[in-house]
Amino acid sequence: MVQDYTSDALVGTVVDNRYLIRSKLARGGMSTVYLATDRRLERDVALKVLHPHMAGDPQFLDRLGREAKAAARLSHPHVVGVLDQGEDGPLAYLVMEYIKGHTLRDVLKDKGALTPRLALALIDPVVEGLGAAHSAGLIHRDVKPENVLIADDGRIKIGDFGLARAITTTTSTGALIGTVAYLSPELVMGRQADARSDIYSLGIMLYEMMTGRQPFDGEVPIQVAYQHVNSTVGAPSELVPGLAGELDELVQWCTANDPEQRPVDGNALLAELRHIRTNLSDAELDLRPPAARPAPMAGGAAGGAAAGAAVVAGASEDAHTELLGGIQQPTEVIGRGGPHPTTVLSGTPRPGAYGPLSAPDERAFGATAEEAAGGPAAPASKRALRKLDRDEERARQRAAATPSRSLRAGNPRRRGLVWLLVLAVLALLAAGAGWFFGMGPGSPGTIPQLSNKTVAEAQQLLRTAGFQSTTRDVFDDDVSPGLVVGSEPKAGQVVRKFESVSLAVSKGPELFPLPELAGKSLDEAKTVLNGAGMALGPVTESYDDAAAAGTVLAQAPGKGTPAKHGTPVALTVSKGPQPIPVPDVRGKDQDAAVKTLEAAGLKAVVAPEPVFDRTVPKGKVAGQDPATGNLTKGGAVNLTISKGPKLVEVPNVFRKPEAEAIKALKDAGFEVKVSYAFGSSVLGLVAGQDKTGRQPEGSVVTITVT
Q1: Nearest-5° angle of CA 173, CA 179, CA 185?
Q2: Which CATH number is associated with domain 103-129+138-157+181-343?
Q3: Which residues have CB under 8 Å from 126's CB, separation 6+?
Q4: At what angle do helices 266-279 and 245-254 cross, to 10 degrees?
Q5: Which three-class secondary structure state does DSSP give residue 22?
Q6: DSSP 71-124
Q7: CA distances from 533 to 126, 418, 567 (A)
Q8: What are phi and psi for residue 82, nearest 5 degrees?
């Protein structure tokens, strides 16, 4: 991510008494992103501050809060984490994980078209992250290269979950939110988005990664939106000759105009993506694309002319998220495929057009051997070709089984005998078939309930029911090792007895070594546990003089311990150094004070120069800093040692008036005691004083008054 060092009034300020804004990273259509430091947890974060026109909408802020909470519950290695959300006066903000690096847009600007190997490697974690979000019920709605973050250490994450949804649900019905170059047709039409809308945007992005340009261009965003609805994305191989056909099919599967014809979600796309990567040759994966050149307008010249779109190279270079207002009247275009008009944009509300997610119906193509084994589906064209091959083979078999000529003509008696033999054979065949399908191996039987039984018990039950069986070992978290998990066909199904029944026998839970968590922060430990499929157990806190607060000190079970997924791991987390109350050593001898502080785990620092103190005897502690409160182990306490009271010259007050004498003595630092020679003052003059010369400051001087 390239930082933007343009001056900004917020740089240097603290948001919500917690987030210190250090620099401006980027500015988009909805918000400005800053690099900030979380002063409470002492870590760098990305602070997204919404623009004032959005921060001032209470409905939007309420929706944003709910969406931020939903996104914060999603913890996945390829999804940027949402850490906090709030408001500080007129500012509304989101706090997200800070990824130091750059975006996929930077890669495309730098390299242009990518090799298929690099394009598939970069988009794989993005699809995996979206698949996890789709499984959690979250839809991104703004998939684009700017939202794909690539860290300096190679981690790839997709960010900005929740923000687009919050905006789309609070803007007017006739408005769109998102980057127009990647918008799905249903979003352009104002219909409800689902996981397949993200898949469309991914397909556009993959097209751009392999060709170096976007499939649709226009001088204004509305022209690009029109093409999304009324045109189809062309094959990337039109711009990159020699590109594998599987990649063309992958892009066009993702970018089908009808959502029903796309992968159902990110997980379905991920399986096909990895299948293609595995089966392409090195030459196909490492194909060097030529310099990008203008692509023909997808959907034919008529579609481009109807939109009035002039192709402009790089028109969508800065793919900011844009808000497109709904136009006043719907624009209708007669498509080539039929007489029905297609509504492009409308200012009127439209209900959601698509029901629950469902996989495309592929029964017309038959099932391949790989699909039957549970593998990923082959592209539709290949399945259709294989079906044609099978149909031709069956036709050849039927032709081979048909006699090419009839029996030679004979006399009627011979023909009668032949027919009798034929009827007898048919009768025997019918009887045999009746026995086979009625009482023999072809008769129907019901698979018994076999779960949690031993293999011997399950096999005996199947033999009694007339079935043969085979076994296979599987991992299972709930069924004890050696017991049957289930069967195929499943219990309760009625099948012919000649079909073999496969028993799945438990090997117990699959165990995985626990990762090391000691030394990580609590947040990092939670992320590692989630990535390993483990659960967070009880968290206890303990003082530790060496580890900072929030650092994991120990875990149970320990690192490397084999455990099944979902095992809770208890953590001991540091509370930082233990606080030590500062003992009060004032008035103690210096040696005794030092020993008292050292016994408490503190360090005594004695001032080099003692001080006069009229109340503290020489050699004792006159003062300490701090005198109270808490310190951590090894903390310093400064001690000041008394050298006793200061010697001061006693003023001569003989024959001075009583009040003047008292003032002179007190000003010199002495206490004064008055004694009257005749029981009371007669003349009011000092007749004598008991101390003269140099005396300790604060001493009592007795004067006799006549």
Answers
A1: 60
A2: 1.10.510.10
A3: 78, 143, 148, 156, 158, 202
A4: 170
A5: strand
A6: HHT---TTBPPEEEEEEETTEEEEEEE---EEEHHHHHHHH-S--HHHHHHHHH
A7: 19, 74, 8
A8: -95, 120
For domain 444-506, give the CATH number. 3.30.10.20
Residues 589 and 620: beta-carbon distance below 8 Å: yes
The answer to whether 247 touches 236, Cβ cutoff 8 Å, is yes
Greatest mean pLDDT among 164-173, 322-331, 416-425 lies in: 416-425
> Which of 553, 448, 454, 555 is closest to 491 using CA atoms?
448
Residue pair 100/151 in contact by the 8 Å Cβ criterion = yes
3-state SS assignment for residue 319: coil
Q: Which of 120-129, 321-330, 471-480, 601-610 has the lowest mean pLDDT?
A: 321-330
Does residue 569 contact residue 535 with C-beta atoms inside 8 Å? yes
Q: Which entry of 110, 142, 477, 478 is annotated as an active-site residue?
A: 142
| 62 half-sphere exposure, CB direction, 13 A CA radius | 5
CA–CA separation, 132 vs 292, rounded Å? 33
For the domain made up of 647-705, give the CATH fold. Answer: Trypsin Inhibitor V; Chain A (3.30.10)
Tally of CB atoms within 10 A around 678: 9
Contact (Cβ atoms closer than 8 angstroms) between residue 699 and residue 669:
no
362 Cβ contact list (under 8 Å, min separation 6): 377, 380, 383
Hey, which CATH number is domain 580-641, 1.10.10.10, 3.40.390.30, 3.40.50.2020, 3.30.10.20?
Answer: 3.30.10.20
Cα angle 186, 192, 198 (rounded to 5 degrees) comes to 65
**CA-CA distance, 659 to 371, in Å (whole number)?**
116
Residue 486 tokens read as: 């289930």
Instruction: Indicate the burial class of 455 (C-beta count within 10 angstroms; 0-12, 13-18, 19 or more).
Output: middle
CA 241 to chain centre: 37
pLDDT category at 442 given cuts 50, 70, 90 is low
pLDDT 10s digits, 53-108: 777 777 777 777 777 777 778 889 999 988 998 999 889 999 999 999 999 999 99
Q: Do domains 444-506 and 647-705 have the same CATH topology?
A: yes
Mean pLDDT over the full length of the chain: 78
Is residue 142 annotated as part of the catalytic site, yes or no? yes
Decide: 368 and 383 in contact? Cβ < 8 Å: yes
Indicate the CATH number for domain 511-574: 3.30.10.20
Sequence ranges of the domains in the chain? 14-97, 103-129+138-157+181-343, 444-506, 511-574, 580-641, 647-705
User: Which pairing describes strands 82-88 and 91-97: parallel, antiparallel, or unpaired?
Assistant: antiparallel
In tens, the pLDDT along 491-523 reads: 888 887 778 899 999 988 889 999 999 999 999
Q: H or E stretch including 496? A: strand 494-496
Cβ distance 82 to 71 under 8 Å? yes
